[in-house]
Amino acid sequence: MEVTQPTLLPIDECEEWIWDILDSTKDSGFEYLVDEEKEFLIFNTNDFHADTKALFKISKLTGMRLAQIRTHICYTELCFYRSSNLISKNR
After folding, report:
1. Rg of the Cα trace of the chain?
2. DSSP E strand boundaries for the chain
3. Is pLDDT above 50 for 33?
4. Which domains are present in the chain?
């Protein structure tokens, strides 16, 4: 029996899901970074309300886990990541 790796969504679809799940459209944007081991999607917004169910749903649908939340004067940055090793195997 062959074990297959899960298929992960392309990063642009992850962005769409995060935007939709967090329902955050005001002054929001993404930054994408990748290194040898991980890829990061950083979501910047000033319209964020913490919701653990939403964060769990993002992880389940996109394979991206929340690494850090930073806030400063109504500005929030959420850093999501996933293994880039899985990405290269799926290409």
Report:
1. 14
2. 29-34, 38-45, 65-72, 75-83
3. yes
4. 11-90 (3.30.70)
